[in-house]
Every structure is written in C-alpha cells, then in structure tokens.
Design a protein that fits this description.
single chain; alpha/beta; 8-stranded mixed sheet; 7-stranded mixed sheet; 27 helices; 29 strands
C-alpha cells in the first residue's frame, strides 16, 4: 500500500501567534506524512498591516515608519518565542535585511509590481518560520517560495499557467524528496519574474492549484472554523455544520465571496481527482466539511450567506443603443476575464444593467468595462450589502423562494436575482441590519421540520427487534435531530405493506399479514411522496435485494444495511454500487455488516479520513463462532452447542452459513475495502467447517448426521489440547493483501483466545498504531446489538441531511 501525498493549507488565523504555530505543528505531526505539501498564508493580520503601511508611505512618513517597526517586532517576537537560538539567528538575520530593504522604499518606488512584491513578504516569513519549527521538532521540512515554480500574468483575477508551472514544480519536488515542503500561498511570478498576487485570500486558490499540479489525493484547508455552516455561526447561534457539501453548491458559495470558501478555489478541484476537506485548526476534532464531487438534483437552500461592502456597477444605455447587444457583450467579456458578478439585474424599461461586485473587485472591473468600448455610461456606486440563500434547487423550491422574499419585505432592496445555475437567490440591499436579516431568513428557511420516510426490508429476528427499538427511541431521535421519522413500509421477499401516512412500529408485525400484498417490486411506489428523504433499511441476507442497491440510489433513496452481500461482492459490482450512491448524492451506511454494534467500519474510515493508513487487520469476526469455540472444550459434542446457539438465535437461520466461513470472509472483504485495499472475495483463503457430506442436506438432515462434524472438530480440539492450546476461528489480512479465514490453535494467553462468549475482537494495525494495534472488542452477534447498530447508522445519516 503506497502512502498518497496530501496538501495542508493553513490560513492567517491558524498562524496568528506562537501558540497557533505550535498547534499547527501538532496537527502536522498527527495528520501529515513526510512528503506532504503545506501551503501557508501570512501570519495573522500581516498582509493588512503591509497594505496599511503602503497607504501611509506617501502620506505620513513618521506613521509609516512606526507601522513597519510594529510589524517587524511582531515577526521578530514569533521567531524568538518559537525557535532555539541557532535557528532563530538565521531567520532573524534574513528578517532584518528584508525590513531594511522595505524601510528604504519611497512612494516613488511603488509600482504595481513593487507593491505586489511587498505584500508577498507575509507568506515568505510564515513559510520560513513554520519550516524551521517543523525541523526543530524532528519533522524534516523545507521552505519553498511559490514564485519559483508558479507562473501567472498580472490581471484582475490572475490565472495560474499550469503548463508552465508543472515542470517547475516537479523539479522542486524531486529536489526535496522526503521533506515536508512549506510553500508560500497567495503569489506567483510572471514572465518578467515580477511578483503576481493571486487576489486577496488567494492562498486557498494557490493551494488547490498546487495540489492539482502535484497530484495530491486530498487538500485540507485548515482555518478558524470547522467548515461550512448553514449560516455564519457568529450570527446564527443554531447554525448547523454541513458535513458534506456538493461541489456545485460549494462553487456557488465561493462565487458569492463567502469567507470560508474563496473564489476560484474549487476550479482546480473540479478539474482533478482531489478530495477537498475544510477543518478547524484550533479544534481539529470539532467536525469538518467534505466537498462531494457530485452534481445530482437538489431540493432547496442549505446555506444563508451575506456580504458587506458590495459595490454596484450601473450601466446606462440610451434608447438609441441596443440593450440586448450590451448584455451579449458582457456575457462574453466577464467570463473571459474571470470577473463574473455576484448578481446582476437587467431593467429593460430603464435601459439599465446592474452588476454587483465585492469592493476589492469593483475598480478592476470598472477599468475593464471602460477599456472595452461598451456603448454605455458606467457608474460605480458603493454602500451596498448582499444576502443570499444557496443550495441546489433553491430557485425551484416555492417554499424557500417565498420565505426568502417574505423576509425582504420592507427592506431597502435594490434588486433580487436568481443565479442562472439555479443554485442561489441573491438580494442586493442598501445598508441594512444584515445580522438580523440573516437570522430571520435562516429561521424562515430551515425551521420547518424535515420529514424522513423509512422502509424496512426484513421483519425476522433482527427486523422485529429494530422495530421495538425504533418505537422506544423515536421521540428522542426526532428531538435530537429536529426531524420526523416515519415508518412507511415493511417488506419481505414475497410481500410488502406500504402506507405513506405512516405505520406504527409497534403494530407493524401484527398487522403485516393482514395488510401486506403479494409482490417484491415495490420501488415504483416510492416515486410519489412528500417526504424530504427516504431511507431503506435492509436487514436481510438477500442477494436479490442487494442486486437492487444501485437502483435504490438512482431513485433517490438512502440505504442502511446489515446485508453483507453488496459490500463483499466482486469488485466491479461493489464499485458500481458505490458510484451509484456517490453520483446521486445519496448515502449508503453499513456499519452493522461488520461487528454488529461495534464501531469497526466507522473507526477504520475515520482513521483513513484523518490521514492514517491501515496496514493489517486480524481478529475474531463472528460472534456465533466466538460463542461456539469459547464453549467447545470437549465436554459436549460440537453439534449440541451448535443447536443451542441456533435455538437462541445466535446463528443464521441455516447455521452452515456461519460454519462455512462465508460470513467471516464477507466481513473481511468489507473491512479490507473500508481500509483502502482492493480485496476480492476469491482472494480470501477460507476454511469451511462444514463437511462436504453435510453441505447439501436439508437442515433437519444436517443436524441428524452431525456426528460427522463432531468427529472432525473433536479431532482438531484434541490435537490443540495436547499442545496446550485452544481453538478459535480467526480472520487475518496483512499489508501484502494476504487474506486467510480459518480455524487456528492459539496459546490460552493470546489476545484472541480470551474473549467473553459472543465477543468479537478486531486488531487494527496502521501507520499510527503499528507497534500497539488499535483493538475494538465487544459483543459481535445478537439481535439487540445489531438492531442498535442500525439505529446508530440512522443517527449518522440524519446528521448528513
């Protein structure tokens, strides 16, 4: 298994002081590997202070000198507090030389290129300091100036020339193999080797561009917030963190200048295979937002965002001119220059076009329009704000459109527009109380309780217990998530019962025989409903049902399953199901397939998502076989123990499905895939405990002739006991992809030998847990824990809505 390179980007708030730097080092110790890339912004408000100094330089030399000295003291203090004397001396020497050079500048020296060079110093200081601190902590690192390899020409929105940049970056990577490279964000250089700034907050853009050029697997943007919320949590106290965000919605949010996602950041993500995650550097475990690479249909707003300091460019066209022609010219000119407006309004009766921009962008776009030869009078107006509702399908959601418009009544609205993509409703207003307005819109759009409909497939041992548990926990579940959960169907292999008004969980089993109708093709019945989300719970072992999983996703259904068939199917079939859910933006949760209620799949996934790599997995994966071999000491025939387990509901309906090792094999394949290994079922060497003579008999005949089974297992037990060992049915998967499932003789003190009856144990070796494996242990069989695992997955799914 190769370790894929990742890129970590840290913003100015993540490097605001010495404590923040130390926190970043801790994050990189835990979440990065030796050849990862790190992109940094200027520490704290360094860039703002440089801008302030540049503005003061031509006006007040004394004030400019004081500002520069304050900034020098800030940078010097960071170095002295963080580094030992030797490392600090080198950085302090460079710092003093650079501030001396800055101090000699006059306002006559400040060409656009020179100003860009000045403003790039903050990133340079950050990269040098962080690289030195990492090296001091034993993590080999090098500071790299992005201007060495990133090429871009000066423009309102400079675009990185990837063709020219790629070979230069490859050269840098080759020179510094085995080192974490700490790269300056925010800047590139042009053909004349002048500094080109990639726009304010351009470090995120440079991070994803560098990540795409370097072929990293994931870019993590670390900032002072955990990700994207349904609104700014500083404004709306009950705003919700969105664990998943569609790529097109994220792109729209960035286009609207939301502070957590910056313009153009997502372009390299969309054009590559990068996974993008947003996390909080101050509290790494507080949650995250992952940007999903799906473009499925949506149902309405997810986020309310706002922006202060918006400017309007007003284009007035006389009656003698063609307004439509001006529109056509703008539709070509603005995208080419990558300066699409936040919103626009065309008022044909007034001969007027209004374009909304951030204050930072407005002057550049004004110059572009003036130089373009448009036949229109152009005026720049400031003093505006913007509020928007963002989400796929929002413009087609009558409830959200009405709620948005209602909250704007009585407000000083200049215009309201719908994005052509259908992803946002935008209102531009003259100065208003934006925090209060955002709170009102958020409450109006999201206070309505989501309605979740559920279909249970299988009402036997596990299904009946889940119905009892759901009935007990329904009120708490709805209160926890602010949603309603309604059972709308119960089905088995031959019949189904549907009622979109709801089925009482406590009466589902008693009424099923009365209400159910023959048939198994119930999927078409789910096309007409008024639920926000539909969830199928598959607690069967049906191959027929598992074969329909991709169809479930295509019909917009989420899936929670204890059925192992699809998860352990041949790779092509498995990937087709995964792709179907990803492409439709639906979710497939299956923690109950391995370890019943134990959080095995979740733990492995969390380790991988955190940057760890799974090296090997071993353990006892069957609660049934765990119980049997804990009891099997020779005092009773094995078949007698097997019949006890069967009568207690600890086995499959046909216990040979436990004894043949297929259940353990499926769990091992599922866990391997969750670990990042492409393991095929046929690659697992499986020892079946079912004698060939008993394999094809009826269940009654199997038990009647089970002395054949008893003789073989008694022979294995006797041999183990002569060696002072015990028998356990063990699964093993090593880092080379070797997978074995079978009966093993273990020393009595072995970790896998000392379990409570029905316990599973999973030993996970990873890059972080190599010397001392991570062990998950507990009951791995039984209707209670499996039903609980299904309810746990329902809780997790609700958090994703």
């Amino acid at each position: 298994m190769s370790l894929e390179r990742q890129l970590h980007k840290f913003g100015g708030s993540s490097l605001a002081d010495a404590g923040c730097y130390r926190n970043v080092v801790n994050i990189l110790q835990q979440y990065s590997q030796s050849d990862d890339l790190i992109v940094v912004s200027a520490a704290g408000k360094t860039t703002n202070r440089l801008i302030q100094w540049l503005a003061q330089l031509p006006k007040d030399g004394r004030l400019a000198h004081e500002s520069l000295q304050d900034l020098r003291n800030f940078q010097q203090h960071l170095i002295e507090e963080l580094l030992d004397e030797t490392a600090a001396d080198d950085l302090l020497t460079s710092l003093h030389l650079e501030f001396s050079e800055l101090g000699q500048l006059t306002d006559r020296d400040l060409t656009p290129a020179r100003q860009a060079w000045v403003l790039g110093h903050g990133e340079l200081w950050s990269s040098r300091l962080l690289a030195a601190l990492l090296t001091q902590k034993g993590l080999a690192a090098r500071a790299v100036d992005s201007r060495v390899f990133l090429r871009a020409e000066r423009a309102t929105q400079p675009e990185v020339d990837r063709g020219r940049s790629l070979p230069l970056l490859q050269n840098e990577l080759a020179q510094h193999s085995g080192h974490r490279l700490v790269i300056t964000g925010f800047m590139a250089s042009n053909q004349a080797r002048e500094t080109v700034l990639l726009g304010r907050n351009g470090s995120d853009y440079s991070a994803t561009v560098i990540g795409a050029l370097a072929g990293v697997s994931r870019v993590t943007i670390w900032s002072d917030v955990a990700g994207v919320y349904s609104a700014d949590p500083r404004i709306v106290s009950d705003a919700c963190l969105l664990p998943l965000l569609r790529l097109d919605e994220a792109d729209e949010l960035a286009r609207l200048a939301a502070p957590v996602l910056h313009s153009r950041t997502l372009q390299p993500v969309a054009q590559s295979a990068i996974d993008l995650t947003l996390r909080c550097s101050l509290q790494p475990e507080s949650g995250s937002t992952r940007v999903e690479r799906v473009l499925a249909s949506g149902r309405g707003a997810k986020i309310v965002t706002s922006l202060d300091e918006v400017c309007l460019l007003e284009l007035s066209v006389t009656r003698a001119q063609n307004l439509q022609q001006i529109e056509t010219e703008l539709s070509t000119l603005l995208p080419q220059a990558q300066v699409q407006p936040l919103a626009q309004s065309v008022e044909a009766d007034k001969g007027q076009i209004l374009l909304a921009y951030t204050a930072e962008m407005a002057n550049g776009v004004l110059s572009l329009l003036q130089d373009s030869g448009l036949h229109a009078e152009i005026r720049l107006r400031d003093g505006f704000t913007m509020v928007a509702a963002v989400g796929a399908g929002v413009v087609n959601n009558p409830v959200h459109c009405h709620g948005f418009q209602q909250q704007l009544k009585g407000q000083p609205v200049e215009f309201i527009s719908e994005a052509e993509s259908g992803l946002s409703l935008v209102a531009v207003l003259r100065q208003a109380d934006i925090p209060a307005l955002v709170q009102q819109i958020h409450q109006s759009l999201f206070q309505a309780q989501k309605r979740i409909g559920m279909l249970l497939c299988g009402h036997g041992n596990i299904g009946s217990r889940w119905l009892e548990l759901f009935d007990e926990e329904k009120v708490a579940l709805e209160k926890r998530h602010g949603m309603s959960f309604t059972l709308i169907g119960v089905a088995d292999s031959r019949r189904y019962w549907f009622d979109l008004k709801g089925i009482s969980p406590s009466q589902a089993l008693t009424q099923f025989d009365v209400e159910a109708v023959p048939g198994s093709d119930w999927l078409p019945l789910l096309t007409q409903h008024d639920y926000d989300e539909l969830v199928v719970l598959d607690v069967t072992a049906s191959q027929t049902l598992a074969a329909r999983y991709a169809d479930f996703a295509g019909h917009g259904l989420h899936l929670i399953t204890a059925n192992k068939v699809a998860g352990s199917a041949p790779g092509e079939t498995y990937r087709a199901v995964v792709d179907a859910f990803e492409k439709s933006s639906r979710h497939w949760l299956y923690n109950a397939t391995v370890g019943a209620g134990l959080p095995v799949n979740h733990t492995v996934k969390d380790l991988r998502d955190s940057g760890d790599t799974i090296l090997a997995v071993s353990g006892i994966f069957s609660g049934t076989l765990s119980w049997l071999f804990q009891q099997f000491d020779g005092s009773l025939p094995f078949s007698q123990l097997l019949e006890q387990a069967w009568q207690q509901g600890l086995t499959e309906p046909d216990p040979r499905h436990d004894l043949d090792g297929s259940d353990v094999m499926r769990k091992l394949v599922i866990l391997a895939r969750e670990s990042g290994l492409a393991l095929e079922p046929e690659q697992v060497k499986v020892e079946s405990l079912v004698p060939d003579e008993l394999a094809d008999l009826t269940l009654d005949a199997f038990f009647e002739q089970s002395q054949i089974l008893d003789e073989r297992l008694q022979s294995r037990l006797s041999k183990a006991q002569r060696e002072g060992k015990v028998l356990r049915y063990v699964a093993r998967l090593d880092k080379n992809g070797q997978a074995v499932v079978g009966l093993d003789a273990l020393e009595p003190e072995h970790a896998l030998a000392n379990l409570l009856p029905c316990d599973n144990i999973f030993a996970i070796e990873s890059r972080w847990y190599r010397e001392n494996p991570l062990v998950i242990r507990g009951p791995g069989a039984g209707r209670d824990v499996t039903a609980g695992a299904l309810l746990s997955d329902l809780n997790r799914l609700a958090n994703l809505f």
